[in-house]
Amino acid sequence: MNKIDEIVFELDIRPISASRPRVFKNGGVSHSETYQKFAKDVPTEIENLFSEEEIELMRQKLRNDDINIGYKIHQDLIFRCNNEDFWDVPMVVKPDIDNVIKAVFDQVYNYFGLDDKRIFSVESIKKYGSNDKIVSWIEVFEIPKYVSKRKTSKKTKKEPTLEELEKELEKLMRGVDNE
Asked: Which GO terms describe its biological process (predicted)?
């Protein structure tokens, strides 16, 4: 497994939870207003932070059709708090980290064209800080393509037991005596 690239970036945006979408009686589905705002703000924040060329370069680094690649992701999900004694302290209250990770994956990483199925490692830390922020390190690795071992069609014959050999010998002896 060879590391072929690394992308690091910070977005000054509050990480939010991707709670379950609401389903209406008429069959419609909608996310919360907070999630919808996050979904609109992420592309704007990225486009304000990076030039079009930088965004395209990041997308190219994350997509490589010539080799099999995988991603190792580390992310700090930072929530603003006023009490500086708590900055860098892990946040162990709501929102649940798995729901925040889901929102970041769906909005931030999908914006860059990162393929979720190629992620093999994720480390996320939810903590307090001076400002709302999402900090990401994405390491890109060349992964050997999986090739399964072929199953042989030959059945292995089990070795006969001593008892089975004696019975077989008896049958053969009876056949010789009858002739």
From this structure: DNA recombination; DNA repair
